TrEMBL record:
Protein name: Radial spoke head 1 homolog
Entry superkingdom: Eukaryota
Compositionally biased tracts (Basic and acidic residues): 1-14
This protein's GO CC annotations: motile cilium; nucleus
BP GO annotations: axoneme assembly; meiotic cell cycle; spermatid development
InterPro entries xref list: MORN
Keyword entries, A-Z: Cell projection, Cilium, Cytoplasm, Cytoskeleton, Flagellum, Meiosis, Repeat
Localization: Cytoplasm, Cytoskeleton, Flagellum axoneme
UniProt cross-references to PANTHER family, sorted A to Z: RADIAL SPOKE HEAD 1 HOMOLOG
Span list, region Disordered: 1-21, 171-214
Its biological purpose: Functions as part of axonemal radial spoke complexes that play an important part in the motility of sperm and cilia.
């Protein structure tokens, strides 16, 4: 069902409202029969998108409200979250930063609502990876991440004005006789402290460890 403007060829063109066969509804701009321009699309499952369209795809700026209560506001490219945007998760966590192919990718800040901690740094395909800072209430960690875990040289910076330098090492997994199809349990990297100093300018971009390490 469609009510709204059409062009000389009879295509939906201009402003209109439509109910789709699956029960979704759209109200907004059309060009040559396709959703293009600004519009609001309501999904039967309770989700809602309001923003820019280009040839039936979410493209430009828009806000998407998901059925679980989460919400994304930002850039879209061909129906994907891409560019810069803010995501509020159902559990109250937030991510603000860069996106590519629907995933957190590039520079971004993730805030954990329960603890108030913040990850500020680099993401690759939705995973924390690269130089970053993990900020807690009275101290922070500065280092590099790989697959969502800190790895390699880094430092803990305490608000009282000192730093603990060291590195995260990946423990070697003990090989045990076990069923082949059981995946090995992930092993958490272990922190090995090497020195406590006053505040220093070392950052995770430096390849050399800070003084007192090695």
């Amino acid at each position: 069902e469609y009510e709204g403007e059409r062009n000389a060829e009879g295509e939906r063109h201009g402003f209109g409202k439509a109910r789709l066969p699956n029960g979704d509804t759209y109200e907004g701009a059309y060009e040559h029969g396709l959703r293009s321009g600004h519009g609001t699309y309501r999904f039967k499952n309770g989700a809602l998108y309001t923003g820019d369209y280009l040839q039936n795809k979410k493209h430009g700026k828009g806000v998407f409200f998901y059925p679980d209560g989460s919400k994304y506001a930002g850039d879209w490219v061909h129906d994907q979250r891409q560019g810069y945007g803010e995501y509020l998760y159902a559990n109250g966590d937030t991510y603000t930063g860069e996106w590519a192919n629907n995933k957190r990718h590039g520079q971004g800040t993730y805030v954990y609502k329960d603890t108030g901690s913040k990850y500020v740094g680099t993401w690759v395909n939705g995973i924390q990876e690269g130089p970053a800072e993990l900020i807690h209430l009275n101290h922070r960690f500065k280092g590099r991440f790989l697959n969502g875990k800190p790895l390699g040289y880094g430092k803990f910076i305490f608000d009282i004005g000192c730093e603990q330098h060291g590195k995260y090492i990946q423990p070697v997994q003990e090989k045990e006789e076990e069923e082949e199809d059981e995946p090995p349990l992930p092993v958490e990297p272990k922190w090995k402290a090497s020195a406590i100093t006053k505040l220093t300018p070392w950052s995770p971009h430096d390849e050399e460890p800070a003084p007192g390490e090695g």
